[in-house]
Amino acid sequence: MKTKTDFPTINERRPEGLKEDGTPYKVLVVDDSMFVTKQIGQILTSEGYEIVGIAGDGQEGLEKYKELYPNVDLVTMDITMPKMDGVTALEKIIEFDKKARVIMISALGKQDLVKKSLLLGAKNYIVKPLDRKKVLERVRMTLNQ
Amino acid sequence: MRVEYINPFVEAAFNVLKEVLDENVKRGELYLKSTSQPVLGVAAIVGLAGDVEGRVLFDMRMDTAIAIASVMNSEKLEKLDDLGKATINELANMITAQAVTKLHDLGFKFDLTPPSIITGENMEVTDQGVEALIVPIELPQGKIEINVAVRERT
After folding, report:
1. pLDDT tens for each residue of B96-110
2. What share of residues in chain B are helix, strand, coil (percent, to 5)?
3. Reported pTM
4. CATH number of the domain that residue B84 is part of
């Protein structure tokens, strides 16, 4: 028997990456490791988030943020990067947009820099190794703040 | 060389590998070498400079590196391409960061270089005037040797 109606959806939960109006949250990923950008991209897009830009260092991250603004909801920012580190880039992004939502991505052992970032206006941080649960939880918390 | 330098690296490697591979990880027996040693095919090398100086090598066979990078990327890599190298680089980064935090807590102060990935056959590593401590870590994907050659700065 053929049916003309859709199957009932058994999963009513809206993907976390979608806003109430159904459009995705837009994310800029700043990291010099191709592995990490890919990992963050996969985790976030699987929940409906849209990666609107990727930058390989702080300088490029800052430029991309200005370019994308105001169509960017969240930035993930690595701390150790060439050219311009993540803390400086964070500072400059906040200078440009006081409401910017930036999550720092840190290796263990950078507590002082994480603390400094939070004082400068970063909304949250994630310590590597990254896993799906940790990333989605921190991103959700940051967007709901 | 004092064994307290290598233990944090072994512990960190153990923890990080267990977490990223989600597999059984077994620590092999520690051994000491004072002569040149063969490098297995893929090595991530990190330099240390400060109260202690030297280098740490994460050494593995090419097929092991590809298998590990494949698991970490949740996709089968055919060769160690740029993504594969970035993955092994990141693995070395995570392990050293954890180990160094421990060593800093123990009172050793030093800086690190970013990891470099070296690949090739028939290579050897020689450290003048300092012996290397090696701890193999056994994984389902093969073996990673944590090879630490550091000394206190005089």
Report:
1. 999 988 888 888 888
2. 35, 35, 30
3. 0.86
4. 3.40.1550.10
